[in-house]
UniProtKB/TrEMBL annotation:
Domain ABC transporter: 19-260
Identification of the protein by name: ABC-type lipoprotein export system, ATPase component
Entry-linked SUPFAM superfamilies: P-loop containing nucleoside triphosphate hydrolases
Molecular function GO terms recorded: ATP binding; ATP hydrolysis activity; transmembrane transporter activity
GO cellular component term of the entry, any: plasma membrane
SMART domains: AAA
Protein's UniProt keywords contain Secreted: no
Organism the protein comes from: Actinoplanes philippinensis
Length: 302
């Protein structure tokens, strides 16, 4: 069988994506102990997407988010958001990047806000740092308070708001300078189920209304079940992705179809899930065969 010919020159990995992680590595060194938090992670996110990142505790989710948000620096590999190269960025560019290109919402409701500032004051703060005129600041704060359904909290301090309201104000703060990407690290981790749903809906709303790309780390299957793409991280690498789409049947009923994909790295490596390996007793050696439109994997008969 003749194989289709590859293009003469391979296009740059993720050329059209807004976020590109290519073989990303982050090693933490504490004394003589080395922890490889990210071990060659590949990830592409398109402009305007909203994705969830899931994974066991310690798999590297927060490390990935801190790097992409410009808070932490990678050890090796490539990380790009828009035109910003997160490995080679100068200190000055990093400040600009954190102020204008990205917004960040943390899990701890209290750490997103400032106890003695009202919602309006805290939403205006990043715009003061960006030297936006007072009238523009006020208009943007009004727009965000309304979009996040917290207009009635404009003059309240955090202690006068519920956890859900605090997180929605935190999203407004993160959106103040019109970032291209909004990162949220377990934004519903401290909230009950009903309140979490409201905060997640607020993230979806800013994604749709303002076109901001959203990357949300979560343990909550309810949350990850509501985005079109969920990326799973295992041991510092992307291991699988679930894609969801809504289909309408001939009688008008809609249902969500979720399909799980294994992620192949750029060297062509794919991890076969443990349950598949065990079911067919796949061990060290397997036989690969190329079919017309798929590849099969057979156990080693010997
Ligand atoms: N500052 C640090 N110094 C040393 N090791 C660190 C540091 N930050 C994270 N690590 C280690 O790196 C690995 C990945 O941590 P990370 O916080 O990214 O995981 P996570 O998936 O976000 O976990 P969780 O869901 O518990 O928040 C872990 O083994 C962690 O102990």
């Amino acid at each position: 069988m003749s194989l289709p010919q590859p293009p003469e020159r391979a296009a740059e990995f993720g050329r059209d994506a807004l976020i590109v992680c290519d073989n990303l590595v982050r090693i933490y060194q504490t004394g003589s102990i080395e922890v490889q938090a990210l071990q060659g992670l590949d990830l592409l996110v398109g402009a305007g997407e909203m994705i969830a990142v899931v994974g066991a505790s310690g798999s590297g989710k927060s490390t990935l988010l801190s790097i992409l948000a410009g808070i932490d620096a990678p050890t090796a590999g490539r990380a790009r958001v828009g035109e910003a190269d997160l490995l080679t960025m100068s200190r000055r560019d990093r400040v600009r990047y954190r102020r204008h290109t990205v917004g960040f919402v943390r899990q701890q409701t209290a750490s997103n806000l400032i106890p003695y500032l009202t919602s309006r004051e805290v939403i205006e703060m990043p715009m003061v740092a960006a030297r936006r005129p007072a009238r523009a600041r006020r208009a943007r704060a009004d727009e965000l308070l309304a979009a996040l359904d917290v207009t009635d909290c404009a003059d309240r301090k955090p202690s006068q708001m519920s956890g859900g309201q605090q997180q929605r104000v935190a999203i407004a703060v993160a959106m103040a300078n019109e970032p291209r990407v909004l990162f949220a690290d377990e934004p519903t981790g401290e909230l009950d189920t009903a309140t979490s749903a409201g905060v997640f809906e607020a993230l979806r709303h800013v994604n749709r209304e303002f076109g901001v790309t959203v990357v949300v780390v979560t343990h909550d299957p309810e949350v990850s079940g509501q985005v079109e793409r969920t990326v799973a991280i295992r041991d510092g690498r992307t291991s699988s992705e679930v894609l969801r789409r809504t289909e309408t049947s001939s009688n008008g009923d809609t249902h969500v179809i979720a399909e799980e994909y294994a992620v192949m790295d750029r060297a062509g490596r794919v991890q076969i899930p443990r349950e598949y390996r065990e079911a067919l007793d796949l061990t060290r050696r397997v036989r690969l065969a190329l079919e017309a439109d798929h590849v099969t994997i057979h156990p080693d008969p010997s």
